[in-house]
Amino acid sequence: MLLHNVSASLLFLTVIFASIYNVSLQRIRDKMYEPIEGASACFRRLNGTHQFGCSSHRSGNVGVLQFVDDDMDLNWLVENATVSPYMAVLPPKMFTKDVLLKLKTSGKVNGVVLINNGTETRPEHFSHEDKCPNRYSGLSLVHEQTCNISDPWNVHGTGISLIDWGFPIFHVKDEDNISKLYQCYKTHNAHDRDAQVERSLCALEMNSFMLAAVDSKTCIRRSSATTILNRVRYCDPLGDRNIWSTLYPRYKAEEKNKTVIVVAARMDGTSMFDGIVPGAISPISGIVTLLMTARILAKLAEPLDEQHGDDNVMFVLLNGESYDYIGSSRLVWDMTHGVFPISPNSDIKVKQPPFYLHNIKLFVELGQISTLGNVSSSETDFYLHQYEPSSNRVNSQNVISSFKNKMNNVSQNIGLKFKDAKKKNSFPPSSLQSVLAKSPDIEGVVLTDHESHYLNTYYHSIMDDSSNLKYVYQNGSTPSEDSIQTVIAKLSRSLAMTLYYMISNENKDPPELEAKMVDELLHCYLDTMDCPVFRAISYKQKLDDKPASLYVGVNVWLSPITTLTGHALALLVNQTDSNKTEETCYSDVSNRVFSYIWMHNIIDDVNSTGACIKTTMNFSSAISPAFFEEQDYDWSSGNYSTWTESIWREFSVRMFLKPSKFHENLTFALGVVVLALSFLIVYFANSKSHILFGNTFVENSC
Ligand SMILES: *[C@@H]1O[C@H](CO)[C@@H](O)[C@H](O)[C@H]1NC(C)=O
Ligand SMILES: *[C@@H]1O[C@H](CO)[C@@H](O)[C@H](O)[C@H]1NC(C)=O
Ligand SMILES: *[C@@H]1O[C@H](CO)[C@@H](O)[C@H](O)[C@H]1NC(C)=O
Ligand SMILES: *[C@@H]1O[C@H](CO)[C@@H](O)[C@H](O)[C@H]1NC(C)=O
Ligand SMILES: *[C@@H]1O[C@H](CO)[C@@H](O)[C@H](O)[C@H]1NC(C)=O
Ligand SMILES: *[C@@H]1O[C@H](CO)[C@@H](O)[C@H](O)[C@H]1NC(C)=O
């Protein structure tokens, strides 16, 4: 009885004590750790055979802060530093492959922070993509490589994002956080560096643990193995949706034999860090050129309900192209299987006939577009890239050369020139490669700002932003003559006029140059998604007040910028159906030719009651066939994109004061002493228990 009371109260006390202890421990921890909010992480991606990117240990990586501003700092860290592991803090100019590899092989570094102080001058180049982007896919599957590694397209590409780093890398942009790190480093670590062992040091803990490992094959297999309790996902395939729209609706059966000029651009870019893919020159300038071309062409070709000539035009924005052409390889797969735009088996009355690859008369791709190569303030040159084997074909040339002639013809007086790209045995990375790999006879050109290598030295990086494109929002004023807005307006005008001529054999002049509209569109992608054009297409929907991120994302999540872009295309072409009200404005299940979308419709008038937009625009899947085509897909074949993205639980960066080595050793030694003592006491009590407690105690308790 007594014994029970004693143990109960002991238990009670323990609980009380433990909870108090816990609370105070929590408080101590809060005091000790200073969170660095808003840091974005490098994460892990996998292809069929490898893993790339970054991950921390399961419980996070810890290291002493060390700013590495120059080679002296680097050498000291690699050769003389004594209290490893360290966290190396690098400004952009030090964030190079050489430096990172040195840090990695030194074994002294547990993580890297890239600090990107916006006011500092930028390095001349900063691209972490491969020198030959998508070098294993596209045409290289069927022909030899079309990118010459000694004279590559992305000359300054470091390939940093295609290395498996084995430690976390974070990007910190916020000025306050940068100065927090710097202050702590300055106060505790910077002085008297060779005596760091003796004192407490400022340290970082970074957590970016990735659940997936090895390669996509392993991860997809592990993910689909269901346990009794639940299904655990380790990674998701990269993918989203393509956007497409035809100038004239395709509903008659004869469409099956008609030819179509495809105008394509890519929808996605990428970078090393989560959530920061500004993508100004690639892909935004191409997207905006395509949207504007569709708008101008629709004006020229009205009324859009009836097709006059034989040819049609299809606009396509392809998604996931940065990762071995996910979107274009899927579109080509769909077309060769006769399921684009809709499966023929479905028993819907009014639907579009299948669109096959042989329906393509000409494939015009809008690549990187900028004013970086401007010859003078009044002349901009563009280059038309053609795949050589196809240009040697008999009777080819006709379509492409008439396209080129017309383009030069219509832009004679507006300062644009379209030239043949003359680079031997090379063809730029492009969606057209997916098409040519399947069907080499298709005629196609890629239109870019560059001839033999990218002018964009920030390709696929966090710095490919509005300043790289030399874009400044004009907010209603007319952009200057040499601005990117005017150049894109001129380019889309020339392209629309040429396309109109090619489908109708008629010349028509568009009413005006719409540089202001280009200005508004670029504003939406580069400055803030809460912008006049996106407000006009969304109805009672909250828009994020930040620039868009153009990363393709994973298939289980629909990227908002893809939806916004699709709807912007519908708005710009602008066919309204005034007979439909908000309630009746939806797509009819028995008629799959037009979609109906209710939107504000009028740019910069949120009070407008809205209108029902009728459009041929629709989305199609941009998920690689590797993930559904065959049960036993050969993951190392490279036939289709196999990119996946690892799942993670959290990203966190915390700063704290790490006790000195001496202090740590002391604590450890004390611990060992206490442990030894307690063993001794227990041993002693045990061996003398008959004296200490007597036999009665043992009997009672039984
Ligand atoms: C994955 O990437 C590595 C390195 O870039 C490459 O060697 C390999 O061929 C790729 N695997 C597939 C299946 O694409
Ligand atoms: C950013 O860099 C500039 C120039 O190097 C410097 O004057 C400024 O103090 C830096 N800001 C921070 C927060 O480090
Ligand atoms: C398409 O063309 C083929 C031969 O070129 C012809 O047999 C067929 O009837 C045509 N189909 C339609 C729907 O016009
Ligand atoms: C654009 O101009 C309007 C009207 O003058 C103003 O209200 C708005 O704040 C401006 N927007 C930007 C981003 O400067
Ligand atoms: C609206 O309905 C009327 C009467 O049914 C029809 O004549 C007209 O063509 C319709 N307009 C549109 C844009 O569909
Ligand atoms: C749009 O595409 C989806 C499939 O992606 C299809 O179910 C739908 O019917 C299409 N809508 C129209 C109007 O074509």
From TrEMBL:
InterPro entries: Ncstrn_small, Nicastrin. Coiled coil: none annotated. Residues 41-212 form the Nicastrin small lobe domain. Its main location: membrane. Keywords: Glycoprotein, Membrane, Notch signaling pathway, Signal, Transmembrane, Transmembrane helix. SUPFAM superfamilies: Zn-dependent exopeptidases. It holds the Pfam family Ncstrn_small. One of its GO terms (biological process) is Notch receptor processing. It comes from the Eukaryota. It is a single-pass type I membrane protein. One of its GO terms (cellular component) is plasma membrane. It is found in: Membrane. The chain crosses the membrane at residues 6-23, 665-685. Belongs to the nicastrin family. This is Nicastrin. It comes from Diploptera punctata.
